[in-house]
Amino acid sequence: MSWCEELFGTNKPIIGMVHLKALPGTANFDGDMEKVYAAAIKDAKALEEGGVNGIMVENDGDMPFTHLLTTEQTAALAALTAVIKEHTNVPIGVDAAFSDYKSALACAKGARADFIRLPVFVDTVVSFNGIMEACSGEALKYRKAINATEIRILADVQVKYTHMLNPNISLEESAVWAGACGADGVIVTGSHTGGETPLDAVKRVKSKVKIPVFIGSGVTTDNADEQLDIADGAIVGSSLKTDGVIDSSKVRELMEKILFRCASVG
Fold first, then answer.
1. Most exposed among 98, 138, 174, 183, judged by the fewest C-beta atoms under 10 Å?
2. Sequence-distant (≥ 6) Cβ neighbours of residue 26 within 8 angstroms
């Protein structure tokens, strides 16, 4: 049994996103932490009620992102992750956007979470906030230093909203490097949040790595069958919302379709 199946209890896990409202230390924080907590817990419970196999907590409301989180952001992200873990009974992950490995690992360790997402792991990319360099070596050393080797790392390859500094590096090369540099799984995305991930890209990555390959954007009830025919799992957020809030009926519809698919092929 793979670590993925052992952790999530299925061979095709669906990880639902909790997109947090703006946190302290950011331009859009409105000063009301109770509202931030209430919205996060509501979304997390809706995801669990709908049947997801895991939840990832991300400081999505902190746009525009910086390279590193402030102390205030990290403290709030850790506290919110811990509260979500207390209110749910599924594996929990952390994404400290945009790819702050120390904050992600520290939050996960403190909140007793199970995995993190690192959007920039082996690639050097250009985004709206400048050049971001690979962090795989530093991330693994820090994970070891804080005695957090139980926390799994899901690493994006050539992640959405960025451009490779060296465009000659193929997606397959990035995926192979991610596996070689210690990622427990890789994530393939489309060009933007909610944008469908090209099946060809997923196939190309799957053909080159032995670790789990997750789809990181654009999975919907309509395309879940074909996407999960190839990928080992998916991270889903935008398509599960109504008016910006997780809709448990949409979650349930997606999960029922996936369960039906698994029963049909199994």
1. 138
2. 61, 62, 70, 73
